[in-house]
UniProtKB/TrEMBL annotation:
<keyword id="KW-0443">Lipid metabolism</keyword>
<dbReference type="GO" id="GO:0006083">
    <property type="term" value="P:acetate metabolic process"/>
</dbReference>
<protein>
    <recommendedName>
        <fullName>Probable butyrate:acetyl-CoA coenzyme A-transferase</fullName>
        <ecNumber>2.8.3.-</ecNumber>
    </recommendedName>
</protein>
<dbReference type="GO" id="GO:0016787">
    <property type="term" value="F:hydrolase activity"/>
</dbReference>
<feature type="domain" description="Acetyl-CoA hydrolase/transferase C-terminal">
    <location>
        <begin position="278"/>
        <end position="434"/>
    </location>
</feature>
<dbReference type="GO" id="GO:0006084">
    <property type="term" value="P:acetyl-CoA metabolic process"/>
</dbReference>
<keyword id="KW-0378">Hydrolase</keyword>
<keyword id="KW-0963">Cytoplasm</keyword>
<dbReference type="InterPro" id="IPR026888">
    <property type="entry name" value="AcetylCoA_hyd_C"/>
</dbReference>
<dbReference type="GO" id="GO:0019605">
    <property type="term" value="P:butyrate metabolic process"/>
</dbReference>
<dbReference type="Pfam" id="PF02550">
    <property type="entry name" value="AcetylCoA_hydro"/>
</dbReference>
<feature type="binding site">
    <location>
        <position position="342"/>
    </location>
    <ligand>
        <name>CoA</name>
    </ligand>
</feature>
<dbReference type="InterPro" id="IPR046433">
    <property type="entry name" value="ActCoA_hydro"/>
</dbReference>
<dbReference type="InterPro" id="IPR038460">
    <property type="entry name" value="AcetylCoA_hyd_C_sf"/>
</dbReference>
<dbReference type="InterPro" id="IPR037171">
    <property type="entry name" value="NagB/RpiA_transferase-like"/>
</dbReference>
<comment type="pathway">
    <text>Lipid metabolism; butanoate metabolism.</text>
</comment>
<feature type="binding site">
    <location>
        <begin position="219"/>
        <end position="223"/>
    </location>
    <ligand>
        <name>CoA</name>
    </ligand>
</feature>
Length: 446
C-alpha cells in the first residue's frame, strides 16, 4: 500500500475519530500550537455521553471548546504542565490543575511514569511529506515521548503549521497513526508582551553581562523579548541560540545578522530550541529551515548539554524574590500563574557553562489595585508561593536598579545585595525585616 493509500484509509471526520474516546480515558493534546481544534470541538459535542475525561496539555493558545460546554469541569478535567493566560483563567474558576515538573523531565515522565496513562494522543501537525512522515512543527518538546506510549494516536492536519527541521524526535510516521483528520484551523500568533520602559532599562543591565559569541536562552514574557530586541541593536556579534523556547526576539537577532551560532561547541551553526511561540514571521522562518534544529526537552534542557556551550547566558523572568534569594516564578501565593518550565534547568546549565551566567530579571516593584507601591523583593515568599529556583541555585538577579550576584554569598550578604536593587522607597522596611530575621549584620551597608 502506498503512503497516499494508507493516508486515505485512515482519513476520517473529527466526529468519527473521537468515538474511540471512552469515559475514564486520559488524553494528551501536546503543546500550544499542537492543541487540536476540530477534535476539541468534536469532543465537546460528546459531553453528554462521556464522564471523567482527563486531559494533559502544555500552555494553551486558545479557549478550548470543551471549556465552553463544560465550564465547571464536570466531564473534562484539564491538567497542564505550564499555564498560559487561558489556563490561568480556568484555574481561577477551579477548572484547571497544574502538573509540577522540570521541563527537562517531561519526556521522561511519559516513558518512565505515565507509560500506561495515555489512552489517546490527539494533536495538530503539518501535512504529511512524500515519505509518509508527519512533523511535530512548533511543539517538538515532548510529543514523540507521548506518541511512544499512547495507545491510540489521532493527528489533525493543519496546512498552515510550519515544518520544523530536527534535531531529533520531530517526526511521526503514518504507520504509527490510527486516524487522520483534516482541518484548516488557525495558526495563532503569540507575540511577547510589549516591553515597558522599565523592561528596557533592565535589558540594558543584562546586555552589560554579555560578550561576543554568547549562547543565549530567552524565557517567556516581555522582559526576555526586550533583551533580545536590544541585543539586535547592540554591538555584540556571533551570538548563538540554545533555548527551550524560540520567540520573536531570536528572529530579530537573525535579521540583524547577530545570530550566527558559529561559536557554539555543540550544534554549531544551528539555532536550537524545543518549542516555538510568536508571530507569523517566526513561523515562516522555522518552516523547512535547515539552519534550525528542534529537539525534545530532555536534550535542550539537560543542564549537561547546556553547559557544553561556552558563555551561555540564560535570561528569565520571576514574580518575587525573597531576602534569602529564593525565587518564585510561577505562583503568587496559592494562585498558580505559569510553571517551573525550564527555568531551573537553564539556571543550572548556564552557571555550569564556562563563562556562563544565569540571570533572573524582575521589576523592583508594582502598583496594586489600590495604586499602592508593592515590592517584588520581599522578606520571605508569601505562604503558598512556589520556589521555582531555590536559594542554593540563585545567581544573578537584575532589576531596573542594577544587579546582584548571590552565588557563594552568606545570608547577610544576600540580604544586603538584594535590598540594594529594591525600590529605594521600600528599602528601609526590608532592612527592618532582615534585622528581625537575623540576616542583617553590623557590617551591612546600603
Amino acid at each position: 500500500m502506498s503512503y497516499a493509500d494508507e493516508y486515505r484509509s485512515k482519513l476520517v471526520s473529527a466526529e468519527e475519530a473521537v468515538k474511540i474516546v471512552k469515559s475514564g480515558d486520559w488524553l494528551d493534546w501536546g503543546q500550544t500550537l499542537s492543541n487540536p481544534y476540530a477534535l476539541d470541538k468534536a469532543l465537546a459535542a460528546r459531553k453528554g455521553e462521556l464522564d471523567d475525561i482527563k486531559i494533559r496539555l502544555v500552555l494553551s493558545a486558545k479557549e478550548h471548546e470543551i471549556w465552553k460546554v463544560d465550564p465547571k469541569g464536570e466531564t473534562f478535567h484539564m491538567n497542564n504542565w505550564h499555564f498560559g493566560r487561558a489556563d490561568r483563567a480556568q484555574h481561577d474558576k477551579g477548572n484547571a490543575y497544574h502538573i509540577p515538573n522540570l521541563y527537562r523531565n517531561n519526556p521522561l515522565f511519559y516513558r518512565k511514569s505515565l507509560y500506561d496513562d495515555v489512552d489517546v494522543a490527539m494533536f495538530r501537525v503539518p501535512p504529511m511529506n512524500k515519505h509518509g512522515y508527519f512533523n511535530f512543527s512548533c511543539s517538538v518538546a515532548v510529543l514523540r515521548a507521548i506518541c511512544d506510549v499512547a495507545k491510540k494516536i489521532i493527528v489533525e492536519v493543519c496546512p498552515g503549521l510550519p515544518w520544523a527541521c530536527g534535531g531529533r524526535e520531530e517526526l511521526i510516521h503514518i504507520s504509527e497513526v490510527d486516524y487522520i483528520v483534516e482541518a484548516d484551523s488557525p495558526v495563532v500568533e503569540i507575540p511577547s508582551a510589549p516591553a515597558t520602559k522599565t523592561d528596557k532599562v533592565i535589558a540594558e543591565h543584562v546586555i552589560k553581562e554579555m560578550t561576543d559569541g554568547a549562547c543565549i536562552q530567552l524565557g517567556i514574557g516581555g522582559m526576555p523579548n526586550a533583551v533580545g530586541t536590544l541585543l539586535a541593536e547592540s554591538e555584540l556579534k556571533d551570538l548563538g541560540c540554545h533555548s527551550e523556547m524560540l520567540c520573536d526576539a531570536f528572529y530579530h537577532l537573525h535579521e540583524a545578522g547577530k545570530l550566527t551560532n558559529k561559536c557554539k561547541s555543540i550544534d554549531r551553526g544551528k539555532t536550537v530550541y524545543a518549542f516555538a511561540a510568536g508571530s507569523h514571521f517566526l513561523y515562516d522562518w522555522i518552516d523547512n529551515n535547515p539552519s534550525m534544529a528542534a529537539y525534545p526537552t530532555n536534550y535542550t534542557n539537560d543542564p549537561y548539554n547546556i553547559a557544553k556551550n561556552d558563555n551561555v547566558v540564560s535570561i528569565n523572568n520571576c514574580i518575587e524574590v525573597d531576602l534569602y534569594g529564593q525565587i518564585s516564578s510561577e505562583s503568587s501565593g496559592t494562585r498558580h500563574i505559569s510553571g517551573t518550565g525550564g527555568q531551573l534547568d537553564f539556571v543550572t546549565g548556564a552557571y555550569s557553562s564556562r563563562g556562563g551566567k544565569a540571570i533572573i530579571c524582575c521589576t523592583s516593584s508594582y502598583q496594586d489595585k489600590e495604586g499602592r507601591l508593592q515590592s517584588r523583593i520581599v522578606p520571605m515568599l508569601p505562604s503558598g508561593s512556589i520556589v521555582s529556583v531555590p536559594r542554593t541555585q540563585a545567581h544573578i538577579i537584575i532589576t531596573e536598579y542594577g544587579k546582584c550576584d548571590l552565588a557563594g554569598r552568606s545570608t547577610w550578604e544576600r540580604a544586603e545585595r538584594i535590598i540594594n536593587i529594591a525600590h529605594p522607597d521600600l528599602r528601609d522596611d526590608l532592612i527592618q525585616e532582615a534585622q528581625k530575621m537575623k540576616i542583617w549584620s553590623k557590617s551591612n551597608k546600603i
